């Protein structure tokens, strides 16, 4: 840890604009084996697909050794080497549409430290509000965790998959999918595509499947299982790494409140990502 007072970063804000042009969602649809022709101007952008915009376009000279932009700008200069997107919380107010001019306002709302089994950890919570010309569309809270670099890979305690899911389907994961998702989100983090780096430096046993990719795959699967329903709220939390060599399944469990709990599950039956979706009332579907 360093002597910088990270609390000085709480309350920092930044704003950025972009336009929801059609090529990124068409490319993501093709990556997910979905029809790419549905993304003409004026068509709705699926929930979470706003991640295709507001990309972190840092010059190559400002990239750190892990492939991320160097720290110390909007985010605090935390020296712990590992960085992961730990969890997210979303409220969907309105659909973004292809062709919309988009605006995102971001604020660091919380920074906290704790001691874990692997040493010190720092959590940074960032709140985003995404708007179109029609008003507020998406509220997002993102938790980023910083960890020390381990000497060996020690997985967290496993969380068993649900014994009787409402539905389950296999999900093909391979290095090409990981590379294409990294490219579409301009994510240079080397754990997703650089095998020597991920195994020798970060000590993982294989390429790491992006947390946001898992969250997106789960939500897309839940929507396929619930045609006509629109997500109103969505939360996800990473509980165990999922690797590119894993045999992955997507599972859903119906909730008494009408929503669904969602899980990515590896070949050992361990949960990787846990999520929950709440559906909008029928008269509020966008």
UniProtKB/TrEMBL annotation:
Residues 1-22 are annotated as: Disordered. Residues 75-138 form the FAS1-like dehydratase domain. InterPro entries: FAS1-like_DH_region, HotDog_dom_sf, Mitochondrial_HTD2. This is FAS1-like dehydratase domain-containing protein. Pfam families: FAS1_DH_region (PF13452). Coiled coil: none annotated. GO terms for molecular function: (3R)-hydroxyacyl-[acyl-carrier-protein] dehydratase activity.
